[in-house]
Amino acid sequence: MPEENPYQEDDASKLAEELFSGKLGVGEALTKLRTRLLDLTMRNRLLNYRHPKGRSLQFTDDPELNVLFDRLEEGKSVPLAYVPDPPVSSYEAGKKPEVRTYARERGIGTSIDFAQSNVSTAHKRLPALQVLQYPADLERMVRKVSSEARTVIEETGTNMLYLMFGFLEYYDSEDSDKAVHAPLLSMPVSLLRGNLDAESRTYTYELSYSGEDIAENFTLREKLRHFPLELPELGEEDTPESYFEKIQLAVSNRRNWTVKRRLSLGFLSFGKLAIWADLDPEKSAGLLKSELLRSMFEGDRIEESGAFHAEDYVIDGHVDGELPLIYDADSSQHSAIIDAPKEIAGICTALGFSPLH
Description:
Structural class: alpha+beta
Number of helices: 11
Helix content: 25-40%
Strand order of the largest sheet: 1-3-2-6-5-4-8
Number of strands: 8
Number of domains: 2
């Protein structure tokens, strides 16, 4: 049974008190910080993706995931396919037939679960991605998703629109009977508006790979370590299918856990993962040896009281005493502002890169 995440999003004071009590070593403090950064609760979409209405698409009709993955990586774009509008004669009470029902009549696959495939991707044609939407409905939804994706980039400088290959269906505890789904491979993509479709008189849209890093689900890997279970890593030569097979083998002893070969488009946030990776002592060995970090977490202990503190400068006589301040500050606050550039430089050095970058 997994351990509960000890910190909630609104419990910063508890974490700060523990981190800076002077009782934790650098390694322990970094571990707790990294756990908080990941958010291992079921609120996290990387652990429990629910396909929010109007902000995500699920694809059907059994596309070849390996072929799709390869062609997108090669720089090709893939169009989104709608379900054609039915003839007016098929309307009931002035309404179109339910789209899933009509898609079946047209021979269009409606299952979101795909068959396993190990076929070679060489010389394979890249098919359109089928969505169970009539043309006008699909255009309206994709236009909204595309607009939101652009807004996010403008406001944050980060692309959060991903094409998700495969999901792990698992249970958050041994006694849970509610399955949750976590994306396995996430490819950052862009939505491009194409030409006006002659048949439907709606605009077509295509997906293209943005060129940024394709992400494994590191949050899921960290979550499963609490079960305990080690999620396999994505190898350089792995295809989506070979990666799914490795994960299926890893979870084979877990009751009802399984890899779902599905494909979805939606928003994910990996913003804190870069910080989480930078704070890994195994990748940045200098962190554990950093005197600055030792001072931050363990403090400069006074033998009698066990207290620790930073130095308060005599501001009027300090070389940096005339630093421009936006708000009034007392001597301890002003001292912290003076020390900040040195602390940032020390942390950069511990992480192994120049503070000038």
